[in-house]
Design a protein that fits this description.
- With 1163 residues, this protein is an all-alpha fold.
- Among the domains are: 12-218, no CATH class; 414-526, no CATH class; 527-717.
- The chain is built from 67 helices and no strands.
Length: 1163
């Protein structure tokens, strides 16, 4: 296949081409340079020069007039000018018309027709006709031949053909034919586009020479011709004769104009055509621009094609390499062969000059450590060597190049050379090592394998020296260690990923090809025990962050922890991990959290069941506390912290994750009879968790996923630190208002010491001024700056409960405590708002504690395995019971807290004496809606909206609402337990979530206890007023029916006890739901009749009441006026001596009258 290319080059060897000097002179119309050309060089440019001399110029300047005279003087002595002048004297318009007619005739009769309008019947061959013809006929002969070739090209559909033509082959008339060709194209550009002419010339002998002359005489067309030839070219040029001819023609053009060679190469890559041309142009450029030390253009160009981001280009060039290798006989004329040879020469040029292939024995090396037969790689060659290694990796791994024995030998020599201790040297060693792993076939003989082993041993010994000298923290030592660990754990895919990542390319590596390297690593160089012992001695990375890339000691330790190598060989890794956590900074390195997780797993889970003690040691409490020294204090103290906030957050993440994992693995550990130690509660009390979380919140972008992970752990294990109210408070404390307060901060505020605050509190019984002033100044401080004052504040709060303390002081102390609550562990000051805040936190903490305790002690109630064999279904019994007991305890705890809070809402004896009513909240709410202005005026004097009881009631109702929403079962339990009925107006109006009681009131009414039934009906009456909903109506109707049923079954005493407190509820039912009026009135008449029947001895007293009740039912409107008369209400006489039935009858009558009044006033 390469013979055609040889012929192409040979056919033009005897011809003289336009030199770069001459072409540049033509481009710039440099007459001085043109005058210096030799006659043979000038002869090639005559068509253009003659046209310039004869044609009227567009440039009318004086300078061009002078240049034109010089050109005429230059042409005056050349004989061939006369023939060119004769060619220019022809009528080109008539010639173009005849050519157009011939084109039409050929199109009509077919391309193979021998008819010609331009040329009549030829008597002789084209060469003789050309010799004997005058200028017009010569033009017609060449034009006819050229048009015939161009027509055939257009009809060939891309298939290459070779056209034999005497005009373009005869060496005697080549120059005259070239003159005619150039004149024709210049005078008939529309008929003969230069790109089409160039395409046609590729199909004739000496076409490249004609093409160069044509372009040299039209120098401005160079880029147009090159782009056209490339665009019409083949994707793989060396696979066909046409591709090779096109490549050679373009190569000749670029030799004529070398300044545009790289631009033409860019066109090649852009079109993904003619890869051989791109390489050939690069080879020509490399030879002209040879550099001994720098990376050559050939290496850069091929590396860019194979390692660039354009997959299309990569595939295109890879196909060129693969196809080139498939040719059986690859000669020196092949562009691929030339490229490989040039690369090999460059590789051999940088190899150490003094190199012995003798294998050095280990003993010899130890005896003379400073003397080695292995010559080092020169520092100026290291970068070039790295570039060559990456290029060969890309050629072999991406393009599928199969190296020859010579290439493989020289590559191995380069890879095992020893660079200087510089960052570039570290990079070179890493690349060499990964290339050995990726292409193990380069090592084929025992001598080569021993050479590799010696080089790897040298790497291990020199790793520390390289790291200290080069200043690169991520050196090849970590990579060696990491690969060794991967080999020991048989993670071959991880090694492949590591190799591809280091080389910077995705190549296919078969895991089977790593088998020999695995044997060498695991048995000769890095045994597992050596790996673990070496890993502990590797220094930690200082200021480890995500900005430090590459393979670090942390990657090695992580893999060893995953494979449990440390526990297997009893190597302690705790100190190394602790030191690395201390040496961290932002942005957070992504390997830190996985390292902590796998370390915790190695602490809790043994490496094997046979050896349950094979675990790592946890970080001690003393080491943990030392991390947080200096955190508690003002800003000045925190500036002196020894450890970064990153280290503190990571240690906090470790503690929380450890405790969570310990609970999650409780059953597994109990089965293995292991009880790892949990961190003490006193340790957790000393860690400012909330302060650290606040710091992490401001560094979320730099901490990656650490902030969200900490929030998850807190929400699960420390819910009392994740109260929503606290977060809202923190937003207020850390928002814009806080910045404004800082602007108001004065030196006086900073100068107040905790001692001065204590003295001010001591003077509270006498004066409030000083403590008020200090407290106001303290509100301008940040949360961390307030920490030193916390003890004084909390220890003196009991003094603020005394009478006479201004409310502003209480509000300021409350505000300061809320600020401190964002950064400090909780304390218990005796103020209601703070107490409720604390109560909520402790209830949440108690839930988390009991859940953790249940997991920790899960093995205590589990029957032994010997006792449970064959007892199906009995093993889960204790667990279910323990869970139920825990839930019962939590419910009792929450309900007790609610009952205590409700009791606090009752007025004290002193408040009762002042006329404060417990249902003041309800009546004040209703007064806004239902009462008139006069009624409002009456109540304003009775109760002050800002009284202490009212404030306490509001705070308690807010907390109870949150508790009911969080767990509706608490509301159900509390109401089944019951509480004073005088609190019902308060709870129903003050707790928005009380409507959930409608769900369980039917169940509460169905209880056998009379007290619960009474409480349910009273509760329902208030709910109906507050929530007049369809659901309330159905429950109220149920309550009326139940009351009617109870009337028939209750004894006299129980009847009195039940109906006396519940009859007023019927009024509320009627007020909320008028449709119940008939049923309620019937019920009241029935109650009255039953009571009258039991008082036979006092019929005369009862009968009038029954009669009135009946009349009231039948004619309510007639009684409405009488009922409003106060004398009527009091006219029933003294009922104190009456029995229960008589009292109940009077109560019924009052209830009916109230309902009638309500209905009449409503109408």
């Amino acid at each position: 296949m390469n013979e055609g290319s040889t012929v192409i080059m040979a056919e033009c060897t005897s011809l003289q081409f336009v030199s770069p000097f001459a072409f540049e002179a033509m481009q710039k119309v440099d007459v001085v340079r043109l005058a210096s050309l030799s006659d043979p060089e000038l002869r090639l440019l005559l068509p253009c020069l003659v046209r310039m001399a004869l044609c009227a110029p567009a440039d009318q300047s004086q300078s061009w007039a002078q240049d034109k005279k010089l050109i005429l003087r230059l042409l005056s002595g050349v004989e061939a000018v006369n023939s060119i002048v004769a060619l220019l004297s022809v009528d080109f318009h008539a010639l173009e018309q005849d050519a157009s007619k011939e084109q039409q005739l050929r199109h009509k009769l077919g391309g193979g027709s021998g008819e010609s309008i331009l040329v009549s019947q030829l008597q002789h061959g084209l060469t003789l006709e050309f010799e004997h013809s005058d200028s017009p006929r010569r033009l017609r002969l060449v034009l006819s031949e050229l048009l015939a070739i161009m027509n055939k090209v257009s009809e060939s559909s891309g298939e290459f053909f070779f056209k034999s033509s005497e005009l373009f082959e005869s060496p005697v008339y080549l120059e005259e034919a070239a003159d005619v060709l150039c004149i024709l194209q210049a005078e008939l550009p529309s008929l003969l586009p230069i790109v089409d002419v160039a395409e046609a010339l590729l199909h004739v002998r000496n076409g490249a020479w004609f093409l160069c002359l044509l372009v040299a005489n039209v120098p401005d067309s160079f880029n147009e011709v090159c782009r056209g030839l490339i665009k019409n070219g083949e994707r793989q040029d060396e696979e066909s004769l046409g591709g090779r001819r096109r490549t050679d023609a373009l190569r000749f053009l670029c030799k004529m104009n070398p300044s545009q060679a790289l631009k033409v190469r860019g066109m090649v890559v852009e079109e993904c055509h003619l890869p051989g041309l791109g390489v050939a142009l690069t080879l020509d450029h490399t030879k002209n621009e040879a550099s001994e030390d720098g990376v050559s253009d050939l290496v850069c160009f091929v590396s860019g094609l194979l390692l660039g981001t354009n997959a299309k280009v990569r595939t295109w060039f890879g196909t060129f390499i693969r196809n080139g290798q498939q040719r059986k006989r690859e000669t020196s004329s092949s562009v691929l062969w030339q490229m490989r040879r040039q690369l090999l020469l460059e590789l051999m040029g940088i190899l150490p000059t003094v190199r012995s292939t003798r294998i050095v024995e280990e003993a010899d090396v130890e005896m003379e450590p400073n003397v080695s037969v292995y010559s080092g790689l020169k520092e100026e060659h290291v970068v070039k060597a790295s570039a060559l290694l990456r290029l060969y990796c890309a050629l072999m791994g991406i393009a599928g190049l199969k190296p020859t024995e010579e290439e493989a030998e020289q590559l191995l020599q380069l890879m095992t050379s020893r660079p200087p201790a510089t960052p570039a040297g570290v990079r070179f060693v890493s690349l060499s090592f990964c290339m050995l792993l990726a292409f193990s076939t380069l090592v084929s003989t025992p001598e080569q394998e021993q050479l590799m082993v010696v080089w790897l041993s040298w790497m291990i010994k020199e790793e520390a020296y390289f790291e200290s000298t080069s200043g690169v923290s991520a050196s090849f030592g970590e990579m060696l260690l990491l690969v060794a660990m991967y080999f020991h754990s048989n993670q071959l895919s991880a090694i492949i990923d590591l190799v591809c990542s280091t080389l910077g390319m995705k190549i296919v590596i078969k895991p089977s090809s790593l088998s020999r390297m695995k044997t060498i690593f695991t048995q000769e160089i890095f045994t597992e025990q050596v790996v673990t012992a070496h890993a502990v001695r590797v220094p930690v990375t200082s200021n480890l962050s995500a900005n430090i890339t590459g393979f670090l000691p942390i990657h090695c330790i992580y893999q060893l922890l995953r494979s449990r190598s440390f526990t297997k060989h009893k190597v302690s890794i705790k100190d190394w991990i602790y030191r690395q956590l201390c040496e961290t900074s932002t942005p957070l390195h992504p390997q830190l959290l996985p390292l902590i997780d796998v370390y915790i797993n190695s602490i809790l889970t043994p490496a094997s069941k046979s050896n349950p003690e094979a675990t790592n040691q946890p970080v001690t409490e003393q080491e943990i506390l030392s991390i947080f020294q200096g955190v508690i204090g003002g800003d000045n103290i925190r500036l002196n912290q020894r450890f970064s906030i990153t280290a503190q957050l990571l240690v906090l993440y470790y503690i929380l994750s450890y405790e969570e994992a310990l609970l999650a693995n409780t059953k597994t550990l109990a089965a293995m009879q292991r009880k790892p130690k949990s961190y003490s509660s006193s340790l957790m009390d000393q860690i400012p968790i909330k302060f650290l979380i606040r710091q992490a919140q401001g560094l979320q972008q730099e901490l990656g996923g650490l902030h969200s992970a900490l929030l998850r752990l807190l929400a699960t294990n420390y819910p009392h630190l994740c109260i929503v109210d606290d977060w809202i408070c923190e937003e207020e404390i850390t928002g814009t208002d806080a910045l404004l307060r800082r602007m108001l901060l004065t030196n006086n505020a900073k100068n107040h010491s905790p001692k001065q605050l204590q003295e001010a509190f001591s003077a509270v019984p006498v004066s409030h001024t000083q403590v008020m002033q200090i407290l106001e100044h303290l509100t301008l401080l940040s949360a961390s700056e307030l920490i030193p004052y916390a003890e004084v504040l909390t220890s003196n709060m009991n003094q603020l409960l005394n009478s006479g303390v201004p409310r502003r002081i209480l509000q300021t102390v409350n505000k300061l405590w809320m600020v401190l609550n964002t950064v400090m562990p909780r304390r218990c000051p005796p103020l209601m708002d703070i107490t409720l805040h604390m109560l909520n936190g402790y209830l949440l903490a108690s839930k988390a504690y009991l859940s953790a305790h249940l997991k920790e002690t899960a093995e205590q109630d589990r029957p032994s395995q010997n006792n449970t064999i064959g007892l199906v279904g009995q093993t889960d019994g204790p667990e279910v019971t323990r869970e139920e007991l825990k839930n019962a305890l939590l419910a009792a705890q929450d309900s007790a807290a609610v009952q205590i809070l409700l009791e606090i809402c009752l007025p004290t004896e002193e408040e009762k004496a002042k006329g404060v009513n417990p249902d003041s909240l309800l009546r004040n709410v209703q007064s806004v809606i239902t009462t008139s202005a006069s009624n409002k005026g009456m109540e304003e004097g009775e109760d002050n909206l800002l009284c202490n009881l009212r404030e306490v009631q509001c705070l308690i109702c807010c907390l109870l609402h949150q508790m009911y929403i969080a767990d509706p079962n608490i509301a159900k339990l509390v109401h089944f337990q019951g509480y004073p009925c005088e609190l019902l107006p308060l709870t129903v109006a003050g707790i928005p979530s009380m409507h959930i009681c409608l769900d369980f009131i039917p169940e509460l009414i169905a209880q056998p206890e009379l007290e619960k039934q009474i409480f349910a009906i009273q509760l329902l009456s208030h709910l109906c007023i507050q929530y007049a909903l369809p659901k309330s109506l159905s429950v109220a109707r149920l309550a009326v029916n139940v009351m009617g049923t109870l009337l028939t079954v209750l004894t006299q005493a129980k009847r009195y006890a039940f109906f006396m407190p519940t009859l007023p509820s019927l009024v509320s039912f009627c007020r909320a739901f008028p449709p119940l009026y008939e049923d309620i009135m019937s019920l009241l008449i029935q109650i009255g009749q039953v009571c009258a029947s039991d008082v036979a001895t006092q019929t005369r007293d009862i009968d009038p009441i029954i009669t009135r009740l009946q009349q009231i039912k039948e004619k309510p409107s007639g009684w409405s006026g009488i009922c409003k008369d106060p004398s009527y209400k009091n006219g029933s006489g003294d009922t104190g001596s009456m029995d229960p039935d008589v009292q109940l009858c009077h109560c019924i009558e009052s209830t009916i009258i109230e309902i009638i009044n309500m209905s009449v006033s409503g109408i």
